[in-house]
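debug: dumping io for the single-chain case to check the tokenizer round-trip. Nothing else runs in this session.
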Amino acid sequence: MNNIAGSLSQAFSLILHLDQELLSIILLSLRVSGSALVVSIAIGLPLAAFMAFGKFPLKGIFVNILNTFMGLPPVVVGLLVYLFLSRSGPFGFLALLYTPSAMIIAQTILALPIVASLTHSAIVSVDPIIRQAAKTLGATPLQISLTVIREARYGIMSGIMAAFGRVMAEVGAILIVGGNIAGYTRVMTTTIALETDKGNFELALALGLILLAISLAINVALNVFRKKGTAEA
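debug: decoded output
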């Protein structure tokens, strides 16, 4: 019990004194996950809008595939990205393996289906009366689409926050493609796993507390967006 208390005390000390190693790991984690989220939003939102407003063959199958990809196993994603970026892979010439860029690619693949699928669900859940009213008022197809998307904004934000939570807590894929290199590709989750194996619980606990705080903030934001969406419905 004393060991746990001592480790917690040192963990809080690392946080309060803004330990440089701790800060660098946190900043790298936020940079990698934030970049992956931005790319996922840039691709996922237009894709979701196209799936929601477009009419094309096998649309239902594509939606089901997108929903299925929300549960992609991170280690499988990491393995596939590794194979594509390895020296013998088709993109090996880019020399991206064991770099933050490879980690961003892996996390983007994990986050993209979540952003696209939940955004699609939010858009198709908007009351059809809103679309009809906009059409009656003479709105163009683009204006109608933007009106519907605006009504679905809280559901879209919930999807984005859910995707951010997924990538921030992910360890398997980035461990495979990043290599957990100190000062270069070592992020919060991989550091926690490594330091726990080494018995260095102080740093692991400090990062765990930060990760819990981020998870709490994400959950609070999710609840806020959901409540606002329910209140406007």
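debug: round-trip ok. The two ends are 50 Å apart (CA to CA).
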